[in-house]
Write a structure and sequence with these properties.
Number of helices of chain B: 13
Structural class of chain B: mainly alpha
Order of helices and strands of chain A: HHHHH
Number of strands of chain A: 0
Largest sheet of chain A: none
Helix content of chain A: over 70%
Radius of gyration of chain A: 20 Å
Distance between the termini of chain B: 58 Å
Number of strands of chain B: 0
Shape of chain B: globular
Largest sheet of chain B: none
Radius of gyration of chain B: 19 Å
Structural class of chain A: mainly alpha
Largest interface: A-B, 80 and 114 residues
Strand content of chain A: under 5%
Number of domains of chain A: 2
Order of helices and strands of chain B: HHHHHHHHHHHHH
Oligomer: heterodimer
């Protein structure tokens, strides 16, 4: 578990440093994710060490958004009388984006004969 | 009652109380989710946030005090994002094979998320700082906040909108995609990750491992794309 945590944190640390140093538009953890995919490509054996810890964290990924979610509650007032319009914009655009994204994927996959195995 | 207030003031000074409360609230949320046959409307994050918001209000605890305990959970968001590498790597051959549908869905989903949000808000007369804050809301919080600052938005408003977008996506994805009869787990997960970042990805992992892996990929790719196109699309609506 220590080794897995070490690899995960080292990848994030590398990602944060690279993102900051190169002024990338991508946040450190996402760079760290790319770094870990590359690490796994070169060293597939690392997957066995990482898997139990990674699955443990990802299995309860929802939990990690709770503190930020609680922070949101205190800011509802900031929207003032535009709250309803903003809520509609968020709900409408999220529904539209999921529908358009999934339909586009399915359509292009069908046209290019791309089936999942 | 003095005993209780003594213990309370002692405990409320350290991080243990609110860290425990955060885990307890989530455990209750997760139990409700299971009891409701995993219906997406009973989202465990939503339930936990509601419980904690009521607790903070009832005890007049400021968010800063709460966060001293909750920060340990919050911190794990970074490592969790890094961990998305593992399901992504597991699915790398499938990702390569689906490059074309992935790129098309990324572009279509990302543009729709930004443009339709701006169009709806604009039709209600929203402009200026609030409109700019709305543009990057489908991408992961640190990126969204950075973009928002660069285009004249408010980081706080954007952070709130990002979370609301994620919860909306997590709640609507399953019924919406069932309604559209999309059965491909790659398409379902990827579209959810693009539109609803990490909270959508967390939801996708609850449903299917393939959906989760592709959702993580969608979130990562959309972080890059939104940084490029959000400023351009905002200009069209200003």
């Amino acid at each position: 578990m220590i080794h897995a945590l070490l690899v995960i944190l080292a990848c994030q640390l590398f990602g944060e440093a690279a993102s900051h140093w190169l002024a990338l538009p991508i946040p450190g953890p996402v760079v760290g994710m790319i770094a870990m995919v590359m690490l796994l490509q070169f060293l597939p054996a690392a997957a066995a060490i990482l898997r139990p810890v990674a699955q443990g964290i990802l299995g309860h990924m929802s939990l990690l958004f709770v503190p930020a979610g609680v922070g949101v509650v205190g800011h509802f007032g900031a929207f003032g009388d535009q709250g309803l319009a903003i809520a509609l914009a968020i709900a409408g655009s999220t529904i539209a984006a999921i529908a358009v994204g999934a339909l586009t994927f399915a359509a292009v996959a069908r046209v290019t004969g791309n089936k999942d195995d | 009652m003095t005993d209780f207030t003594d213990i309370w003031s002692y405990l409320s000074r350290g991080p243990l109380l609110w860290l425990t409360a955060t885990l307890a609230a989530y455990a209750i949320g997760d139990a409700c989710f299971r009891a409701a046959n995993r219906r997406p409307i009973v989202n465990p994050v939503l339930v936990a946030v509601a419980i904690l918001a009521v607790m903070l209000k009832a005890t007049a605890t400021p968010y800063a005090t709460y966060f001293e305990g909750a920060q340990f959970v919050h911190f794990l968001l970074g490592p969790a994002t890094v961990c998305l590498a593992l399901p992504l790597w597991d699915n790398l051959p499938r990702v390569r094979k689906a490059a074309l549908p992935l790129l098309a869905a990324l572009l279509a989903g990302s543009v729709t998320a930004i443009a339709s949000a701006l169009a709806i808000a604009r039709s209600f007369g929203i402009s200026g700082e609030i409109l700019a804050s709305l543009a990057p809301k489908s991408t992961t919080a640190p990126v969204a906040i950075g973009i928002s600052q660069a285009i004249g938005g408010s980081p706080t408003l954007t952070a709130v909108m990002v979370i609301l977008t994620g919860i909306t996506g997590a709640v609507v994805a399953t019924p919406l995609l069932n309604l559209l009869r999309i059965k491909d787990w790659r398409a379902r997960g990827f579209a959810t990750g693009v539109a609803a970042h990490g909270i959508g990805t967390a939801r996708a992992f609850q449903v299917h491992p393939t959906a989760g892996a592709f959702a993580g990929l969608g979130m990562g790719l959309n972080a890059v794309l939104t940084a490029i196109i959000a400023p351009m699309l905002l200009r069209l609506f200003q």
